[in-house]
Specification:
By secondary structure, the protein is mainly beta. About 5% of the residues lie in helices and about 45% in strands. It is built from one helix and 22 strands. Strands 1, 2, 3, 4, 5 and 6 form a six-stranded antiparallel beta sheet that branches. A hairpin with a 6-residue loop joins strand 14 and strand 15. The longest helix is centred in the first third of the chain and has 17 residues. The chain is globular, with a radius of gyration of 18 Å. The structure holds beta-L-arabinofuranose (FUB). Beta-L-arabinofuranose binds next to strand 2 and strand 16.
């Protein structure tokens, strides 16, 4: 990075920390990490009308503190993955009146020209983490609480585990027959059907059995294979399992992505964009104060073998 790029990055970092994002900000990637003027984590991705959208949590923890300080999410878009636009802040914890903090991992999905944002937050009155859903007419928002209450709360899963942080990290998938599913979890992975309205559960919450599951499930499909990738152990690597049925059984296939640099967590989105597949994740590799609580979103290529299994991701500094 040359001197003027560093000065510009610092100027942008300073102004966004103080004022937040209230208008479009365009930047060109210099490789990994792709966003250098703020810390971003837990990426999710969506392709809509030839544009790739990345949704991420905003790591706001000021050094030298080392805790999660996350109050809002961010959205970035690009049509060619080199020049990106960050759009005005699309969703904050305070947009969920029943939540009290922790803008943790999330995913946005489209159905019938509406965009649904599933997000993990800390509940104000029901002990533990919860999952809310927000809705918008546009992939860049603004989003508003779709229910006025959490979709999933900690007390709905106590028969599986007694920890208070197991109801996090939602990933949502609409199958070819139109049935939508939500998967989520920490320590225990869960899944349930969603009603066609996308804002209510349909049927029971069911456990998913996966070896050494920690958190961060992500569901995708290629051909007739379903892939369930997830963060495993701690510090986290990304592992994955495959199935010919969304209901399993899931067959464990091993490590997809090794420990990401200088960071305890690893959190992936997997998506096809313009005929290539991408692995979008975070690490703690930011030049200035990067680490487990000041993370940065990165993108590398994802490759499949002829039998459908995925090659281990090669994390690069150059990016794609
Ligand atoms: O960013 C907060 C939490 O850390 C996420 O919900 C997990 O996936 C891990 O990345």
């Amino acid at each position: 990075m040359n001197k003027s790029t560093i000065v510009a990055a610092f100027a942008l970092l300073f102004t966004t920390l103080i004022f937040g994002i209230d208008k479009d900000t365009t930047f060109t990637t210099q490789g990994n990490s792709i966003i250098r003027y703020k810390y971003t984590a837990d990426p999710a991705a969506l392709v809509h009308d030839g544009t790739l959208y990345i949704y991420a949590g905003h790591d706001e923890c000021p050094p030298p503190e080392n805790i999660y300080v996350m109050n809002e999410w961010c959205v970035f878009s690009s049509s060619e993955m080199k020049t990106w636009t960050e759009h005005p802040t699309p969703l904050k914890v305070t947009d969920f009146g029943w939540a009290k903090g922790d803008a943790w991992a999330s995913q946005v999905i489209e159905r019938n020209d509406k965009f649904y944002w599933y997000a993990a937050v800390e509940h104000k009155t029901i002990h533990g983490k919860s999952i809310g859903v927000a809705i918008s007419d546009s992939p860049i928002g603004p989003f508003k609480d779709a229910r006025g209450s959490a979709l999933i709360t900690n007390d709905m899963t106590t028969k599986f585990t007694h920890i208070s942080w197991d109801d996090i990290d939602p990933t949502v998938f609409i199958d070819d027959d139109g049935q939508a599913y939500i998967f989520w979890g920490n320590t225990q992975c869960y899944y349930a059907k969603l009603k066609e309205n996308m804002i209510d559960l349909e049927g029971p919450i069911m456990p998913v059995s996966l070896p050494r599951f920690t958190e961060a499930p992500w569901i995708h499909k290629k051909g007739d294979w379903y892939y369930l990738s997830y963060a495993s152990e701690f510090p986290e690597k990304i592992c994955y399992a495959m199935s010919k049925n969304i209901n399993g059984p899931w067959v464990y296939k091993g490590i997809l992505n090794e420990l990401a640099g200088n960071c305890n967590t690893n959190h992936q989105a997997i998506i096809e964009f313009k005929d290539n597949w991408y692995f979008i994740y975070h690490n703690g590799g930011a030049n200035v104060n990067g680490g487990s609580f000041r993370r940065s979103v990165c993108i590398d290529r994802l490759n499949y073998r002829s039998n459908g299994t995925m090659e281990r991701v090669r994390m690069t500094s150059e990016g794609i």
